Amino acid sequence: MDENTLNNLRKNYQKGELLESQINPNPLRQFEIWFEEVFKSNIYEPNAMILATSSGNKPSARVVLLKGFDERGFKFYTNYNSRKGRELTSNPNAALLFYWMELERQVRIEGRVEKLSKEESLEYFNSRPLESRYGALASNQSEVIPNREFLERKFFELKEKYGDNPPMPESWGGFLLIPELFEFWQGRPGRLHDRIVYEKSEKSWKIYRLSP
Ligand SMILES: Cc1cc2nc3c(=O)[nH]c(=O)nc-3n(C[C@H](O)[C@H](O)[C@H](O)COP(=O)(O)O)c2cc1C
């Protein structure tokens, strides 16, 4: 594709606004308000979020699914030995990003992660469809494997072995990201977008606007 075609790809955002007079003083509540609106608009996988991690000088990012949020923070599940798992274990500072293009909205969240308790992870693991539980069991996530057959063979061997009750892998579980900073971005016409930041200070949230 030539550069001109890309250079001419742009949208004029006009689906909403985010004004200080409208926002909730609690960013988790503001997130919930936006998330409910996103959910109602029937967009595809509204809970898909980009998780950025880093250890040393090599940042990395990938999509994971948000599986719950409350006053404590944001939950997702993964393999603790995967690249992200290892990076989060050595450096718990991480960022999440939601981009809901249909509503011209972006939310950035920064904070620190903690592992969820084994009980909480197990409860979620057992609520997953059987195939997904076997998928988690068969995959040493982010390890190099010889080919696809290797993975499928392992999947079926484990199914033979455990039937309807696959155990949760030792290396599998949830993380909770405890937020310290949020930025809510709403696209506006003429690139004069709204950017409202909530930054944790002591026990309250400092709220300010950034230039787009
Ligand atoms: C829509 C979507 C949802 C995903 N959800 C998860 C998830 O919840 N947990 C997870 O470990 N990987 C999930 N993945 C796969 C990750 O993006 C990634 O490939 C995998 O976790 C390995 O990442 P890592 O090597 O950086 O650890 C998802 C991918 C996509 C595209």
TrEMBL record:
Transmembrane segments: none annotated. Its cofactor is FMN. It comes from the Bacteria. Pathway: Cofactor metabolism; pyridoxal 5'-phosphate salvage; pyridoxal 5'-phosphate from pyridoxamine 5'-phosphate: step 1/1; Cofactor metabolism; pyridoxal 5'-phosphate salvage; pyridoxal 5'-phosphate from pyridoxine 5'-phosphate: step 1/1. Substrate binds at R10, K11, N12, Y13, K67, Y124, R128, S132, R191, L192, H193. Residues 172-212 form the Pyridoxine 5'-phosphate oxidase dimerisation C-terminal domain. Coiled coil: none annotated. Keywords: Flavoprotein, FMN, Oxidoreductase, Pyridoxine biosynthesis. Gene3D superfamilies: Electron Transport, Fmn-binding Protein, Chain A. SUPFAM superfamilies: FMN-binding split barrel (SSF50475). GO terms for biological process: pyridoxine biosynthetic process. One of its GO terms (molecular function) is FMN binding. Its EC number is 1.4.3.5. Residues 37-159 form the Pyridoxamine 5'-phosphate oxidase N-terminal domain. FMN binds at residues 62-67, 77-78, 83-84, 106, 141-142, 185, 195. Pfam families: PNP_phzG_C, PNPOx_N. PROSITE patterns: PYRIDOX_OXIDASE (PS01064). Binds 1 FMN per subunit. Belongs to the pyridoxamine 5'-phosphate oxidase family. HAMAP family: PdxH (MF_01629). Homodimer. This is Pyridoxamine 5'-phosphate oxidase. It comes from Ignavibacterium album (strain DSM 19864 / JCM 16511 / NBRC 101810 / Mat9-16).
